[in-house]
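Protein in question kept underneath.
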Amino acid sequence: MAPHELRRPFKRAAISDQQKRRELALLRQAQSRRDSQHHARCVASSILSLHQTPETPQSPPEPLPAPESQLDAVEVERERGEEESRDFDARRASKLKGAEARQWFSRQLMLPEWMVDVPPRLTQDWYVFARPAGQRCFVVSSGGTTISRLRNGFLLHHFPSSLPSGARRKEFRFFWLNSKLEETGAFDPPSQYHRYRFSVVPIYNCDHTGLHAAYAGETPFMKDGLLFYNKHAHYQAGLTPLALVWKDESCSQYVLDTDGKGQVPAQQQVVLELQEDGKLSTSDDPPVIFGCLDQELRQKSGLQSGSLLRFSVSEVGMRYADGKLEATDMQFIGKVNRARAFADSYSKVLFQYTARHSPLKIDFLVQSLSSSGDEDDETTTETTDVEMVIIMALRTLPFSDMEPSVSTFASHHHAIAHRNSHQYCLSDLDYF
């Protein structure tokens, strides 16, 4: 059987659009490593000021990815200017309140793209781990307090914890080793000075052994797919192709999106943002345009620029060529819940489309590992024996580059909150 038009053979000469963006993202982060560390410290200090007044700021979008795999001098200068602007907005964070504060914080999370094409060099360049089901949130411990916020920027919890700088009772200077995390008591049961228990997720090299462990291994939490992390990636705010979500029915209850009643709709649904000119765009930067609403419908429905709108897509309503959108046939359903912060990303729309028509199966991933040609050298990543194993130092810096700042300590965590069990499951961590 010939491969589906959305699926290329494992060994291919042309690289996918997603792969081009991965290469560009790695190039761009090399330009902004120091700036991102400074920005993270600004975010942490802003949270403290923000909690004393109501909420937090709004930062501009991440720089636009170029279609080429190289940045010219003009592009580099533009990105430097945007880095400075982003740091400035972080310093203004404590002055924002309410919706503006939530919007700013919603843009501080690193959001993975959905895997629509298997990356090359999976074994050499990628980690894999099970993705816990639950509420994704952004956790910052700094200045003696710990705060968590949901993806949409809403404050979830404000509490003392045993995370570094998360409680005033202790001082911590080292946080990049799993054993040190265990020593802090972050894994301990809830107590007066440690209200929520933190647990961690095992990370594996993405070889045959690691992929099988993440995909089929037992976990103390419910899985919601797999997450793939590029070993060279830094933690950066916004959507990134250096982290990828993948699901199938064996490792997730929700491969296809569900409606408000928890049912899978007969037709795929997408959420898009309405622009001033009536165009309907994704949350990508730059956005992908799916269509346009005429002015009469916008006025009749009272739709404003920036509104998030839901559409249904007919079975033959999307046409793609080389993974790029050519045409769509959509029907307007209505506005989405106001608590939602973003439109769908292009990779999510494409993943949902392929999941309905020609899913990217686990067999494709396994065969991609074999095609890398380095299986004789594959090794497994051992994990420390704690309740779950933390994902540490995804920036893959030498330890000499990860020395903690004596004067400023801020730890950022991407966590999954389990309210009923008073537990946070750490799935990302970056240390500054």
Residues 17-137+196-255+361-431 form one domain.
